[in-house]
Amino acid sequence: MKVTRWACVAVTSAIIGCGGGGDDDGGTNPPPPPPPTQTLGSITTSVTNLSINAGSSQTITVSAFDQSGAAITNFPAPSFTSTTATVAEVDGSGTVLALQAGNSAINVSVTMAGVTRTATVNVTVTGTLPLQANVSTTQGDVFTPNKVIVGRGGQVTWTFGATEHTVVFSTAGAPAGITSGGVSSSVSRTFAQAGNFSYVCTIHAGMNGQVMVR
User: Fold this and answer.
1) Which of 98, 140, 172, 180 minimizes the number of CB atoms within 10 Å of its CB?
2) Rounded to whole angstroms, how far apart are CA atoms 66 and 176?
3) Residue 154's beta-bridge partner residues?
4) Domain end (from 65, 93, 126)
5) Are residues 95 and 69 in the same domain?
6) Tell me: the pLDDT tens digits for 99-128?
């Protein structure tokens, strides 16, 4: 009888022990605090002075830093403007296109959380736009280069390889297209008006190019 009583006591103690810790609410640790918000402190450009020949292009890249000098990796897209667009144009991606001899400045700005920072790239252009450009299709179903620039009245010559292609313009003011770019032939077109003239090959999907005239 004593042995049985002690066995019952032992079992009861084990049950009580297993049920202990009732004051543990099973809660989880709170989430970590969000990272501190970076405040825009400054921006820099890949170049501060740019010398470029007419007809050439170069892209300006921008870096942003917070007030402690740490790099900001995810900042809003910069804006770019040219003070003298007749000398040098700039597009939304920061690519500067030199047009004629002279000086201009590219103003760059970044606005982040109501704070704006600016930088300036001084541009010097030399020379004049070419009046002749060449496009080739000898490297496959692609126009190489797919973008060329000439002065107003300039001429572009397409040289076709072993495959037939067409050159069909989609912009008003362009010269007549090339409806049959014969194998191993060259065909030229003269551009009398200024503008950006996009074109495609109607035989091969995705084959496109552009002639810029200034």
Assistant:
1) 172
2) 53
3) none
4) 126
5) yes
6) 999 999 999 999 999 999 999 999 999 999
Of the two residues 2 and 168, the one the predictor is more confident about is 168
- How many domains is the chain partitioned into structurally? 2
On whether both 122 and 160 belong to a single domain, the answer is no
In this predicted structure, the answer to whether residue 64 has a pLDDT above a threshold of 80 is yes
User: 84, 97 in Cβ contact below 8 A?
Assistant: no
Q: Look up the CATH number of the domain holding residue 110.
A: 2.60.40.1080
Q: Residue 155: exposed, middle, or buried by beta-carbon count in 10 A (0-12, 13-18, 19+)?
A: middle
Report which of 47, 75, 74, 45 is spatially closest to residue 62, judged by C-alpha positions: 45
Confidence (pLDDT) at 36: 67
Q: Is 11 contained in some domain?
A: no
Which candidate, 35, 83, 38, 96, places its Cα nearest to that of 64? 38
CA dist., res. 120 & res. 126, Å (int) = 20
How far is it, in rounded angstroms, from Cα 202 to Cα 168? 7
Residue 10: predicted pLDDT: 44
Q: Across residues 61-73, what is the average pLDDT?
A: 97
| Residue 57 located in a structural domain | yes
pLDDT of residue 35: 62
